[in-house]
């Protein structure tokens, strides 16, 4: 069976009509690849279209203010992707005179671009023979060949990359790479794959052995931590509030939020003013308070679960420089904060 020819033919008939498949422009391919990381097509497509509309060239993206880029990215998560995208656009614009790198090796110099992304762009835009290996590819190869090696182990990463390279259609690498990824996304899906009508069903090891649901194998490594977040939503008599930028590395870097108190356990309403962390924060400030959501909002990230409460703090005047509450929607914020702003009705 000619694995790659079957997949390429399947792709020519069944591929979804997506805007980045109508071009070989590396800038557009790069945008699509970065935006679609950890993101489903239906969620990422509007973001892609917005980015292309607002930043039609790498020069436009390079000259943009980072806050504007982060604001457009709002809701996609993994904000380091947006920061790296912006930094790489500046590098291409300033160091490469706006000429997007044309080879796999040169693309690896871009922030946020690793083996997968460089392989995808170089093969689609420049026909370089580099095989892509992403979650969809791992799933297709592990099932078709019946490979039990954990895909997130050192041995698995090497084994699947070697196999993907051996299977690559070197005469048509771009279409083949897109074919195997599309096949994993729409046909050989994580749950309830369409095995009955699969063009590879007669030689799929996992289907023959009845282990489709068991592959691919992945080692569970991430230990999820729980954190109690208490956001202080100040409202002064002159309708101002406090909005802070998170400048430290970690989640939500360079995004804005209300002042935050982290606590080891949930702070009950009746003991808010007497809680040590709250006492330390406010010291002598005179204020009245209420809680917007008595039950914490659970915001799940890949490595931590945040239990968030929003405390409404009413004061006569702010002790620090604030912003009009009508302007909070103009700032780039995490989706947790954005949802609260909408619900509260700023």
Automatic annotation (TrEMBL):
A Gene Ontology molecular function term of the record: 8-oxo-7,8-dihydroguanine DNA N-glycosylase activity
Family label: Belongs to the Nth/MutY family.
Cofactor: [4Fe-4S] cluster
HhH-GPD domain segment(s): 35-186
Co-factor note (free text): Binds 1 [4Fe-4S] cluster.
PANTHER family: ADENINE DNA GLYCOSYLASE
Pfam family, one: HHH
GO BP of this protein: base-excision repair; mismatch repair
Reaction(s) this enzyme catalyzes, per UniProt: Hydrolyzes free adenine bases from 7,8-dihydro-8-oxoguanine:adenine mismatched double-stranded DNA, leaving an apurinic site
Keyword Transcription regulation: no
Naturally occurring in which organism (per UniProt): Psychroserpens burtonensis
Source superkingdom: Bacteria
SUPFAM superfamilies membership: DNA-glycosylase, Nudix
Physiological role: Adenine glycosylase active on G-A mispairs. MutY also corrects error-prone DNA synthesis past GO lesions which are due to the oxidatively damaged form of guanine: 7,8-dihydro-8-oxoguanine (8-oxo-dGTP).
Stated name of the protein: Adenine DNA glycosylase
E.C. numbers: 3.2.2.31
Keywords recorded for this protein, A-Z: 4Fe-4S, DNA damage, DNA repair, Glycosidase, Hydrolase, Iron, Iron-sulfur, Metal-binding
Gene3D superfamilies xref list: Helix-hairpin-Helix base-excision DNA repair enzymes (C-terminal), Hypothetical protein, domain 2, Nucleoside Triphosphate Pyrophosphohydrolase
């Amino acid at each position: 069976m000619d694995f790659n020819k079957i997949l390429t033919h399947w792709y020519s008939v069944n591929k979804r009509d997506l805007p980045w498949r109508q071009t070989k422009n590396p800038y557009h391919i790069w945008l699509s690849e970065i935006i679609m990381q950890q993101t489903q097509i239906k969620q990422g497509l509007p973001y892609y279209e917005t980015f292309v509309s607002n930043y039609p060239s790498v020069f436009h993206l390079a000259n943009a203010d980072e806050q504007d880029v982060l604001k457009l990215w709002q809701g996609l998560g993994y904000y380091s992707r947006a920061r790296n995208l912006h930094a790489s656009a500046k590098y291409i614009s300033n160091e490469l005179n706006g000429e997007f790198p044309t080879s796999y090796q040169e693309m690896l110099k871009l922030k946020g671009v690793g083996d997968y992304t460089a392989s995808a762009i170089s093969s689609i835009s420049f026909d370089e023979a580099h095989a892509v290996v992403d979650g969809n590819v791992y799933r297709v190869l592990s099932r078709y060949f019946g490979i039990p090696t954990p895909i997130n182990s050192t041995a698995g990463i090497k084994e699947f990359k070697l196999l993907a390279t051996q299977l690559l259609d070197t005469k048509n690498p771009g279409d083949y790479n897109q074919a195997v990824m599309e096949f994993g996304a729409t046909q050989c899906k994580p749950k309830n794959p369409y095995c009955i009508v699969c063009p590879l069903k007669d030689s799929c090891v996992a289907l023959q052995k009845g282990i489709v649901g068991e592959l691919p194998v992945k080692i569970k490594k991430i230990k999820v931590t729980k954190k109690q977040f208490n956001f202080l939503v100040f409202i002064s008599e002159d309708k101002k509030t406090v909005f802070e930028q998170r400048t430290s590395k970690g989640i939500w870097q360079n995004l804005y939020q209300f002042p935050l108190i982290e606590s080891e356990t949930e702070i009950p309403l009746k003991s808010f003013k007497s809680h040590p962390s709250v006492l330390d924060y406010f010291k002598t400030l005179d204020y009245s308070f209420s809680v917007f959501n008595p039950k914490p909002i659970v915001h799940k990230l890949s490595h931590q679960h945040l239990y968030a409460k929003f405390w409404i703090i009413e004061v006569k005047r702010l002790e620090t420089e604030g912003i009009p509450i009508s302007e909070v929607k103009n700032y780039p914020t995490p989706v947790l904060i954005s949802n609260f702003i909408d619900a509260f009705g700023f």
